[in-house]
Structure formats: structure tokens, C-alpha cells
């Protein structure tokens, strides 16, 4: 059930100070390189002092956001900690107790809220996700395999002689051909514009207050975060929801084939489910056929809203991109849309399923998403529990997101059209959750504060 929220936008005029980009981790504000490759690493800390020593060593290699690419490094590294990791580092109890309840509980404990049941249940996640053994998450990006190895070597040297620091998880990732995701759609096209983070974009998109994404600045309510404590810990920090998905590309192709009578209709249904054509062209701007030039134009492919499509005849109400970001479609409703954005840093793993193959080959492929915001509950958790899994906000009852919803073979997808709408039935789950964690990503000064706790 949706609740009435405090209005935001024109009613809040609190100016935001300039972002301290030299103190904010690059992962928060800067996009991945292009092309990109990288690796996620999870560490376990068995001794607080060794954990802090590891942090002191790795700190010089954590990339700040003030430069798109740090010239002195072949790649860049981001670091974040689970609540168990903050405890393992010896963070004071008063600080631990001041973190929001959802972070303290962790993603696995929030499974009911997130609709992580069935195949998505934490019991089915890869180790160490959802266990007390996941403490430190490293995200390492580079432009080439050679550069990646150089940064990985720096990360290894930070703990190679510390016996109580162990690597409990590693996963390589990289860009797929033409920058597509495993389903074949152009990937990473849109993120909210953070006020003060860089040049304004072309088009009519308005910026979102920096405090929605980074602590220490006013948010859309005109409020500034006051936890966790002390200020040295929270300033320029944020939260990260990590989600690893496996994608069943063959099931997606089979479903399209079963619902369509021609290849062209398959592509149209796929676009209706996503809200964009595979090229990245949005349906609102290209409702009848794909427009690859539009999809490739970063100045145009996000310059749109839904006020001219309030019947959903171009882009269905339940299309993936319209559900996770309704844009101006809800601006006159009880939901304050600007309170429910997060920054999305997505990467892909595994090889693409060969074109035209309709049977699963058993290979691991999918995506890992770092969903970044200062308010886990009203951002990631709200979007996941309300807009992704509850269709009431668009008057669609129990209808879920057709791409990332936990549909389990009985899902429904509604395509508005005249004179009669079309409703697709028997929608399976095309993605399954393989793991997830809530992490805190401190600013660089806060990292030094943690590293020097015992000194």
C-alpha cells in the first residue's frame, strides 16, 4: 500500500553546497569506464587490527570522484563494508547502533520486504552472500585485462601477509558486445542527475538534490542526514545495495516466440516489456519501430517523460523502465518520485547466449548491480517492494515487473492498445537473485577515520 508523502521539488529551496568530490568515492558519482572489465572481491576480517591495517594499505588506491579517471592508476577501486564488516573492523558500538535498521539487519533478513522467496530466497544465494562472512566488498574497474591485473595486485598486497584477512569471493565481469546486457538490450543508459556532480545534461531533465545520494548535503526534503554518528563517519558516505542476478536468456526468447507470430512482433513485445528497443531507443520517442540512431544518442535517448503517454499506448505502464522510474507520470500523485531514485552501477558476467538459441546452455550469465543511495529503505527497498512487485500504483493489482519481477510462471503483463488491450499470461521469472548485501561506502576521510581507530 502506498502512503502519502511530504511533497518535494518546488516546495524545497535549500541550496546544496558544492560536492566534495575529492572525498567521495568515484564509484558513487562516476560511471564505469568504456569499455570496461573488472572484478568484485569480498573479504572476511578475522581480526580488527589486521582489518584496519589492510584498510590503511589500500586507502591510497581508492579512487576519488573528482576526476573521471585517476591518471596515476591503471584502473580504479571502490570499497564498502557490510554491517558485519563494520563490527569486524572495531567500529565503536555507538556508531554501529546509529546505523539504520535495514543496514544493521542486512539484505538477507529483509527478504520478505524484497519479495526474495522461492528461487530468490537467501537460502539459495551463493556463499558468502547473506552470511556473517561477508565483510568487505571491493569493486575494481579497468579498461583492459592487463590494467585490471595491476589493480588486483595492489589489492592483494594490502593483505598478503595478514593471516586474518581472507578472500571469500571473487567474480570477474566485463562489457558484452556493443554494450548490451545478456538479454540483448543496450545497457547503462540512465542514472539520475545528481545536483553539483558535473555539467548539466542536454534536455529537460532536472537534477536531484545531492543528499538523496551522498550524506552531508540537503536532500529533496531539505533535510541532511544525521546518522550514522559521528559526522566524520557519515560525511560523503552512502549506502550500496548489491544484487547479483542470473539471467535466463533462453526462457526470455522462448516466451517471446510463443507470444508472437513474426520476428518483428517478437521485437515489439520485447520492447514493450522493457520500455526501450534493443538499441536503447525509448518507446515514448519511437513507439512503432526501432531507431538505432536515437538509441545511440546520449543527448536524446533519455530526454523524455510520460505526460504525453498517460494511457500507456506507447510505453506500457508495467514496462520495466517505467516501473522503476515513473519520471513525470506520477508527478500529480501521492508519491514523491524524487524520494525514490538511486544511482545504478551495473556490470555483466558470462558470455552471451548465441543468437537464435532457444535452449539454455547451462552457462552462468547475468548482471551485478550496485544500487547507490543515502536512504536504503525509501530508495532501493521502496522501488523493489512497491514499484517492481506491486502493481497497485499503476492500477495493475498483483502484476509485477515483467523483466525482474519474481513471477514464477504465473505472471501477467498488460499492453494497453486500442480498441482492446492485450494481456500476456504465464510470465516466468527471467532473472533469479544469486546474492545480495547492504554495504556502507564511506568517504575517503571516513575511511581514514576507521583505519586509525586504534591509533
Automatic annotation (TrEMBL):
The lineage of its organism: Bacteria, Pseudomonadati, Pseudomonadota, Alphaproteobacteria, Hyphomicrobiales. Its cofactor is heme b. InterPro entries: Dimeric_a/b-barrel (IPR011008), DyP_N (IPR049509), Dyp_peroxidase (IPR006314). This is Dyp-type peroxidase. GO terms for cellular component: cytosol. PANTHER family: BLR4509 PROTEIN, DEFERROCHELATASE/PEROXIDASE. Keywords: Iron, Metal-binding, Oxidoreductase, Peroxidase. One of its GO terms (molecular function) is metal ion binding. Residues 24-171 form the DyP dimeric alpha+beta barrel domain. The keyword Metal-binding applies. Pfam families: DyP_N. It comes from the Bacteria. The keyword Transport does not apply. It comes from Bradyrhizobium commune.
Amino acid at each position: 500500500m502506498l502512503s502519502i508523502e511530504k511533497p518535494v521539488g518546488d516546495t524545497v529551496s535549500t541550496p546544496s553546497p558544492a560536492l566534495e568530490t575529492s572525498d567521495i568515492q568515484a564509484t558513487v558519482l562516476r560511471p564505469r569506464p568504456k569499455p570496461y572489465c573488472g572484478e568484485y572481491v569480498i573479504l572476511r576480517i578475522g581480526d580488527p587490527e589486521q582489518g584496519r591495517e589492510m584498510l590503511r594499505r589500500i586507502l591510497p588506491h581508492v579512487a576519488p570522484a573528482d576526476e573521471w579517471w585517476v591518471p596515476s592508476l591503471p584502473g580504479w577501486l571502490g570499497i564498502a563494508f557490510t554491517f558485519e564488516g563494520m563490527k569486524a573492523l572495531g567500529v565503536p558500538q555507538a556508531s554501529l547502533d546509529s546505523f539504520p535498521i535495514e543496514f544493521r539487519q542486512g539484505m538477507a533478513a529483509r527478504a520478505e520486504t524484497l519479495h526474495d522467496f522461492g528461487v530468490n530466497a537467501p537460502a539459495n544465494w551463493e556463499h558468502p552472500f547473506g552470511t556473517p562472512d561477508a565483510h568487505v566488498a571491493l569493486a575494481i574497474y579497468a579498461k583492459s585485462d592487463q590494467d585490471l591485473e595491476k589493480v588486483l595486485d595492489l589489492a592483494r598486497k594490502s593483505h598478503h601477509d595478514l593471516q586474518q584477512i581472507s578472500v571469500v569471493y571473487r567474480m570477474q565481469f566485463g562489457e558484452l558486445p556493443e554494450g548490451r546486457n545478456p538479454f540483448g538490450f543496450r545497457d547503462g543508459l540512465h542514472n539520475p542527475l545528481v545536483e553539483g556532480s558535473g555539467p548539466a545534461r542536454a534536455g529537460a531533465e532536472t537534477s536531484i538534490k545531492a543528499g538523496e545520494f551522498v550524506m552531508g548535503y540537503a536532500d529533496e526534503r531539505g533535510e541532511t542526514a544525521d546518522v550514522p554518528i559521528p559526522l566524520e563517519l557519515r560525511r560523503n558516505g552512502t549506502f550500496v545495495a548489491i544484487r547479483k542476478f542470473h539471467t535466463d536468456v533462453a526462457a526470455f526468447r522462448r516466451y517471446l516466440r510463443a507470444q508472437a507470430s513474426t520476428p518483428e512482433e517478437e521485437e515489439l513485445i520485447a520492447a514493450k516489456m522493457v520500455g526501450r528497443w534493443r538499441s536503447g531507443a525509448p518507446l515514448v520517442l519511437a513507439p512503432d519501430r526501432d531507431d538505432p540512431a536515437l538509441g545511440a544518442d546520449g543527448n536524446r535517448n533519455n530526454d523524455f517523460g510520460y505526460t504525453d503517454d498517460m494511457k500507456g499506448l506507447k510505453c506500457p505502464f508495467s514496462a520495466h523502465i517505467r516501473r522503476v522510474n515513473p519520471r513525470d507520470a506520477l508527478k500529480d500523485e501521492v508519491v514523491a518520485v524524487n524520494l525514490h531514485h538511486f544511482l545504478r552501477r551495473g556490470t555483466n558476467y558470462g558470455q552471451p547466449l548465441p543468437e537464435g538459441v532457444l535452449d539454455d546452455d547451462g552457462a552462468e550469465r547475468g548482471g551485478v548491480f550496485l544500487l547507490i543511495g543515502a536512504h536504503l529503505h525509501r530508495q532501493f527497498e521502496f522501488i523493489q517492494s512497491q514499484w517492481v512487485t506491486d502493481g497497485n500504483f499503476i492500477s495493475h493489482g498483483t502484476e509485477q515487473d515483467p523483466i525482474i519481477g519474481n513471477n514464477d510462471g504465473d505472471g501477467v503483463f498488460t499492453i494497453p492498445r486500442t480498441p482492446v488491450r492485450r494481456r500476456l499470461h504465464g510470465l516466468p521469472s527471467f532473472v533469479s537473485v544469486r546474492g545480495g548485501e547492504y554495504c556502507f561506502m564511506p568517504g575517503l576521510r571516513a575511511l581514514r577515520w576507521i583505519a586509525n581507530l586504534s591509533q
